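Action item from last week, closing it out:
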Amino acid sequence: MRIDVEAEDRLAELESLAEWLADVDELRGKVQAVESAPPTGTLGPLLDALEVALGPGGAAAAVAASVIAWLRSRAGRITVTLERPDGTKVSVDAVRVRGLRPDDVRAEVEGLLKAIEPPDEVPGDRQRR
C-alpha cells in the first residue's frame, strides 16, 4: 500500500508520518520510503511517499488506526491518501478527523480499514472480490 501526504510542508509531514508508523509494533519493518531522484544540483534522493507491506497479522488495522491518530495530532490542513495495489484510493483529511468524538473516531478507523484492507481471495477462484 502506498501512502502519500498533501500539506503545506509535505516533506516534513511525510517524514513525521514515517516516524509515527515506524513506532507501531505491528508495522515494524513493513514501512519503506519511496524515494525519487534528487533535482539537478542537489544531493540525495527525495522522499516521495511511503510503502507499507500489508498482509496477515493486523497490519491494515494498524495502518488505519495509526493514520487517524497521526492526523488528529497534526495542525493545519493535511490530507493522507492511501492507495492499494489494485489502484483503489482513499483520502482522509486532518480537519475532518481532528474534532471527532471517540465513537466517531472508532467509526472512522473502521471505515478506513474497510477501504484499505486487501481483498480476500475467493476459494477456488483466482479473481479477487
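Closing note: The radius of gyration is 16 Å.
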